[in-house]
Amino acid sequence: MDYQEHFKQIAKFIEKTCSELIPLTDKPYNEIFLAARYSLLAGGKRLRPLLAILTAEMLGIHPDQSVASSCALEMIHTYSLIHDDLPGMDNDDFRRGKPSLHKAFPEGIAVLAGDYLLTYAFEVLVNAKHQNADQKLVLISVLAKSSGGDGMIAGQVMDIMALSVDLTSLQQTHLNKTGMLIAASMEFGAIIGKATTEQRNLLRQFGLDIGLAFQIIDDILDVTQSKEKHGREVASDLINGKTTYVSLMGLEESKNFAKSLTNKALESLKTLPFDTKPLKILTDSLVNRQI
Amino acid sequence: MDYQEHFKQIAKFIEKTCSELIPLTDKPYNEIFLAARYSLLAGGKRLRPLLAILTAEMLGIHPDQSVASSCALEMIHTYSLIHDDLPGMDNDDFRRGKPSLHKAFPEGIAVLAGDYLLTYAFEVLVNAKHQNADQKLVLISVLAKSSGGDGMIAGQVMDIMALSVDLTSLQQTHLNKTGMLIAASMEFGAIIGKATTEQRNLLRQFGLDIGLAFQIIDDILDVTQSKEKHGREVASDLINGKTTYVSLMGLEESKNFAKSLTNKALESLKTLPFDTKPLKILTDSLVNRQI
């Protein structure tokens, strides 16, 4: 099996489904859908829905049955990027090599497009055709908690208040800002695939570990990669005076830490009675391609 | 029965419950809860949860069993005010006689506090102790739709894009921006109180009508009331060049239209086989006290 091709096909399926979930209209307020699509359909790895779909598939669920609910994860991730880029937040003019949403549209529309994607994520989960009422409520609960005031938003608060002064607080910031939504993605797959509580907890921890690893890699890329490749200004974290793993640990130590987290996560997968190879290969390729 | 006292007691109960739902913490990111509480507990009529609780009470449900879910409506309303006031949106420095959230806290915290309240509203509904799984899913669906891209957010898009150029488009803007969440409040009461579909639809229409009436009254107050009484700069709509009912219809015609909408709504209540007096008295007092 060509796993990379499989991942690509699923990513395309995610993009297609996201697009169908937010069709263009002739409504007078169509601008909000245009703006949401500008950011939501801007490419990217689709990592969160991809992890959810692969995890559900590992548990015997066809992507047809998990894709819509998984798109809710991408909507939450996208809204967080839109709001993160705003002038009152990180004030980033570029995202994935294109002008940020508030540069391509009026700033107010960018605020509202973020609000719309956030709200719509929950509507998509309520409307999910292939999950039963109990599954929907658990998905909604997991999404709200992982992206909420003790989840992703807590990480963003710590980030903009520059509370990450040492490794402990930086780790909490990254776990909240990135790890929790990736953990939620693994839980989405577990819930849709009706995993046991024990399996779901293991998959959640896998998500926290690789989420933290990916954030460290992001810190590394911020220093080592050019705008062309990464789609952002070089070393924007350093320019913004933000504490990062690289600034606290140095480049080599950061790489080693990301690798050890990834190895721990991959080891845990081996205890599951499923074909975990797709998850392993995806994780490997994401880590090794980039550092 | 002293209805005004009853409304006051319920408003206090709403405020207390909202406060308990967002306790202060010693977490490093406590600032987000401080900011959310600054806006959420800033007084106000608590109209949306009050309507939901009174409607449920009319259907035999004690406020103890409806208050938490009803607070989700106040959270959505409050987030929309926080984001509406942002510099990239209406750029209002005052709200309810106090500095706007982005004036009292850093702007980024205001963006995130809005996001937090939006997200948390759905978590509160998932956690509702007194509603069953089916009720929760319907509440979540109603809240997401009424506040989403074809609901409240559509109204805000039309508002900031100045698309309300005539009475038809102004009415759509107001119905979306204000009417739909008030209609959702009536539906919340109906769902919690297990009303029939027919009754729920009638209550929803009641909400749309009085929601539009209240928005027209808001337009009127913007012209006629001082900052002390209304808590905002005088005639900010006019200063901002916004089309309002007053600018399109004139003051007297606007008052008459608000009254006729209210009368239509109150007439419809008479067809319900319940004690609708509390809803009638609340509506009367809100309309008559202000215009």
What does this structure look like?
2 copies of one chain form a homodimer. Chain A has 291 residues and is mainly α. Chain A has a single domain, classed as Farnesyl Diphosphate Synthase (Orthogonal Bundle). Helices cover 73% and strands 1% of the residues of chain A. Chain A has 15 helices and 2 strands. Chain A has a two-stranded antiparallel ribbon with strand order 1-2. In chain A, strand 1 and strand 2 form a beta hairpin. In chain A, helix 10 runs parallel beside helix 15. Chain A is globular. The model of chain A has no long low-confidence stretch (mean pLDDT 93).
Features:
homodimer; 291 residues; mainly alpha; Farnesyl Diphosphate Synthase; two-stranded antiparallel sheet; 15 helices; 2 strands; 73% helix
Q: How far apart, in Å, are the first and last alpha carbons of chain A?
A: 25 Å
Low-confidence stretches of chain A: none
- Can you say what the CATH homologous superfamily of chain A is? Farnesyl Diphosphate Synthase
Mean pLDDT of chain A: 93
- The succession of helices and strands of chain A, N to C, reads HHHHEEHHHHHHHHHHH
Number of helices of chain A: 15
- Please state the structural category of chain A: mainly alpha
Assembly annotation: homodimer
Strand portion of chain A: under 5%
Fraction of residues of chain A in helices? over 70%
Most extensive chain interface and residues per partner: A-B, 55 and 54 residues
Shape of chain A: globular
**Number of self-contained structural domains of chain A:** 1
